[in-house]
Write a structure and sequence with these properties.
This protein has four domains: 165 residues, no CATH class; 66 residues, no CATH class; 93 residues, no CATH class; 51 residues. The chain contains eleven helices and twelve strands. It has a five-stranded mixed β-sheet, with helices on one face. A three-stranded antiparallel β-sheet has the order 6-12-11, with helices on one face.
Length: 387
C-alpha cells in the first residue's frame, strides 16, 4: 500500500483570514483515490498470498490448489487472509495480521479552511416501498410466521394453480354456508382482476367486493446522505477578496472530471476520470466536532451569487459580497457499523470534555478554598460559602 501523502503547507485559502474571533471551522481536503490497475492489484495481492502459503506450509496443512484458486478464495473472503488460510486448516500468526486497505492509496491534495456556517443539517434516511402481497402472499406470510414452511409453499402453489378459494377458506375459517358464499364472491372478485379492467370492474361492482391487496412496507435501502453549506463572503481586505476569488475557483475546479482521450493529434474524448473526493472535517478550536461527521464526499453542486444585496464594486474590480452554496453527497451510504464508529467517537470526545470540565471545576474550587482558609475562615465556614 502506498504511503499516504501528508499536507505540510497547510490550507491554500482561509476565510476569514482572522480565525480568532470565531473558532468553528470547516476543513475541506481534496482526496484522489489511486485507481486500481492490474499491476497495482497484483502487487497488493502478492504478499497476502505469500502469507497464506507460508501459513499452510508451517501448519503442514495439505493444499493441492493452484495459486489462481487460492487468489479466488482470497477475493471471495474479501481479502481476509485469516479466513482464507482457515479454509486450508492453517492459521496466520497474529503478528502477520494487518488491516486491509480500503484503497490502494489515498493522496491528499489541497485544503481550504472556512468558517463553520449556520444550520448544519445531518440527515439520516432509509427507503421503504409499499408492496402488495395479495391474498396468496398474505397466506404464505402467515404460514411462514407460524413456522410452517410447508404450508407457505402449499399456499403459494395453490394460489398459482387456481385454488385461491381453498386458501381463503383456510385463512378465514369460512366453512359454513355463509362462509362458502362469501368465499365464492371473493373468488369472483379476484377472478375479475384476471379478466381485464371492464369485466373485472363489473364483477367487483356486482359483488360489492374488492380483493384486499394486503399491502406491506418493505425495506429497500439506505439513502446516500447529502449536505448543503451556505457561505457569505464579505472581504474586509484586498487579501481576503483575493482569497474569496481563489476559494470559489477551487471548489468549481474540483467539481469537474478529467477527460480521457486517445492522445495524439485529433484526439477523441473516450471517458471521464472521476473528480476528487472531498474529506470534510468540522472543527472547534482545532479539535474535531464529533456530532458533525462525514464520509468522503463528492461535490455535486456549486452555486455562486455575486452582489446579492448591492451593485457596488471595489476599485480593483472585485465584488464586496459573494454568496457560495455547496452541495455534497457521501460516496456511499451509512450502515450500523459506520454509525457505531461515529457514536463511539462522539461519546469518547464528550467524556473527555466532561472530564476536563470537572477537573477545571475542581481546580477552581480548590483555589477558592485555599484563599478562604488563608483569610482565617474555618473549614465549615469555607464549605458553607462554596455551597
Amino acid at each position: 500500500m502506498p504511503v499516504q501523502q501528508s499536507i505540510s503547507s497547510g490550507p491554500i485559502y482561509t476565510y476569514p483570514n482572522n480565525q480568532e474571533d470565531y473558532k468553528g471551522q470547516l476543513l475541506f481536503t481534496t482526496v484522489r483515490p489511486e485507481p486500481v490497475t492490474l499491476e497495482s492489484l497484483g502487487d497488493a495481492i502478492a504478499p497476502l498470498v505469500a502469507k497464506i502459503k507460508n501459513a499452510i506450509k508451517n501448519s503442514s496443512a495439505a493444499s493441492g490448489d493452484q495459486e489462481d484458486s487460492l487468489i479466488n478464495k482470497l477475493i471471495a473472503n474479501n481479502f481476509d487472509i485469516a479466513a482464507t488460510a482457515a479454509e486450508y486448516g492453517a492459521t496466520i500468526p497474529e503478528s502477520e495480521l494487518t488491516e486491509k486497505s480500503e484503497d490502494l492509496g489515498n493522496y491528499d491534495l489541497e485544503q481550504v479552511l472556512l468558517y463553520l456556517p449556520q444550520s448544519i443539517l445531518m440527515p439520516d434516511q432509509a427507503s421503504y416501498n409499499p408492496t402488495d402481497l395479495g391474498v396468496v402472499g398474505a397466506g404464505a406470510e402467515a404460514a411462514l410466521k407460524s413456522g410452517n414452511v410447508a404450508s407457505a409453499l402449499g399456499a403459494a402453489a395453490a394460489g398459482i394453480g387456481g385454488g385461491i378459494k381453498s386458501i381463503i377458506d383456510g385463512v378465514s375459517g369460512n366453512t359454513g354456508t355463509d362462509g362458502a358464499s362469501n368465499s365464492g364472491m371473493i373468488g369472483m372478485a379476484m377472478m375479475g382482476g384476471m379478466l381485464g379492467q371492464g369485466i373485472g370492474g363489473a364483477l367487483k361492482g356486482a359483488t360489492r367486493i374488492t380483493p384486499n391487496p394486503n399491502t406491506r412496507m418493505l425495506f429497500q435501502n439506505v439513502g446516500v446522505r447529502s449536505f448543503t453549506f451556505d457561505f457569505d463572503f464579505i472581504p474586509v481586505s484586498q487579501r481576503e477578496a483575493s482569497d474569496v476569488r481563489g476559494i470559489i475557483q477551487w471548489f468549481r475546479y474540483n467539481l469537474y472530471p478529467e477527460i480521457i482521450t486517445t492522445g495524439g493529434e485529433g484526439t477523441l474524448p473516450l471517458a471521464y476520470r472521476f473528480p476528487n473526493f472531498f474529506r470534510i472535517k468540522a472543527l472547534y478550536d482545532g479539535n474535531d466536532i464529533p456530532e458533525i461527521d462525514f464520509k468522503d464526499c463528492y461535490l455535486q453542486n456549486v452555486q455562486t451569487t455575486l452582489n446579492s444585496t448591492s451593485m457596488s464594486m471595489h476599485r480593483d474590480g472585485s465584488f464586496p459580497e459573494t454568496k457560495l452554496t455547496l452541495t455534497f453527497s457521501e460516496s456511499q451510504p451509512l450502515s450500523k457499523a459506520d454509525f457505531g464508529e461515529m457514536l463511539a467517537k462522539e461519546n469518547g470526545q464528550y467524556n473527555a470534555r466532561t472530564r476536563n470540565n470537572v477537573s477545571e471545576v475542581n481546580a477552581s474550587l480548590g483555589l477558592r478554598r485555599a484563599r478562604a482558609l488563608s483569610q482565617g475562615l474555618t473549614v465549615s465556614e469555607v464549605n458553607a460559602s462554596l455551597g
